[in-house]
Amino acid sequence: MATTEEFKNGGSTSYPFSIEYIKATDIKVKVDDTPLTYNSNPSSGQYKVSGTTVTLGAAAAAGSGTVSYKHQTLPTKA
After folding, report:
1. Rounded to an integer, what distance in angstroms lies between the CA atom of residue 33 and that of residue 64?
2. Element (H, E) at 3
3. Most distant CA pair in the chain: distance in Å?
4. For residue 48, which of 58, 37, 59, 39 has the smallest C-alpha distance?
């Protein structure tokens, strides 16, 4: 379930964010509505999370690339 979402303009590979999370994989990243895959050593189409920074494997397009992040966790089972 998504709890928070932030949007940034493209043009870089690193983006600061302020969403709280437990595991790095709880942060989901999209560039222009295309989901990226988490990887601790990202290449194109992938990202990693370190502290409060998302690092993309390839830069999002400057001016038109929209980078979005959201915190997503699965509901706990009772």
Report:
1. 12
2. strand 2-9
3. 45
4. 39
Per DSSP (E only), the strands in the chain are 2-9, 14-16, 27-31, 34-35, 37-38, 46-50, 53-56, 66-72
Of 2-11, 17-26, 40-49, least confident by mean pLDDT is 2-11
Q: For residue 74, name the pLDDT band (cuts at 50, 70, 90).
A: low
**Are 59 and 13 within 8 A, CB to CB?**
yes
The token duo for 49 is 């999370």
Angle, vertex CA 26, rays to CA 24 and CA 28, nearest 5: 100
Collapse the DSSP code of 24 into the 3-class scheme (helix H, G, I; strand E, B; otherwise coil) and give the result: helix
d(CA 5, CA 1): 11
Nearest CA to 29 out of 10, 74, 64, 62 is that of: 10
As given in the structure block, the two tokens for residue 3 are: 């709890």
DSSP 3-state assignment of 76? coil
